[in-house]
Amino acid sequence: MSNWHEWPKALVRDLDEAGYKLVKRYADRRSGGMVRHKLVIAPQTSPYRVRPEEGSVDVDLVTGIVQSYYPEAEPSSRGGWLEYTWLVPSKKEEEVE
């Protein structure tokens, strides 16, 4: 991906069709020349900033959608939202072979 904030439109569409929305997305630089990416996903019925009831996210469904785009994404659940994080090498760092 050329920029961390350029997410596939198909991912947003697939989540929408499944009844979920992308609430938050960001990336930050970590030590060792890595960048941590993060997605936060919630049911469409959840108002922004209000967490849904525990267990209201279909973990398997959402994880399957996210991992079809980002196989390395690891899910964790917080109050009914799902968060996915993964690390990738920074494009600005020189790769050492």
Care to describe what's here?
- With 97 residues, the chain is of the alpha+beta class.
- The protein has one domain (9-89).
- It is built from two helices and four strands.
- The protein has helices spanning 9-17, 59-69; strands spanning 20-30, 34-43, 74-78, 81-89.
- A four-stranded antiparallel sheet has the order 1-2-4-3, with helices on one face.
- A hairpin with a 3-residue loop joins strand 1 and strand 2 (34-43).
- Mean pLDDT is 81; it is low at 93-97.
List keywords for this structure.
about 100 residues; alpha+beta; 2 helices; 4 strands
Q: Gist?
A:
With 97 residues, this protein is an alpha+beta fold. The chain has one domain.
Helix fraction bin: 10-25%
Proportion of β residues?
35-45%
Cα-based radius of gyration, to the nearest Å:
14 Å
Biggest sheet architecture: 4 strands, antiparallel
SSE blueprint and pairings:
Blueprint: H1 9-17, E1 20-30, E2 34-43, H2 59-69, E3 74-78, E4 81-89
Antiparallel strand pairs: 1-2, 2-4, 3-4
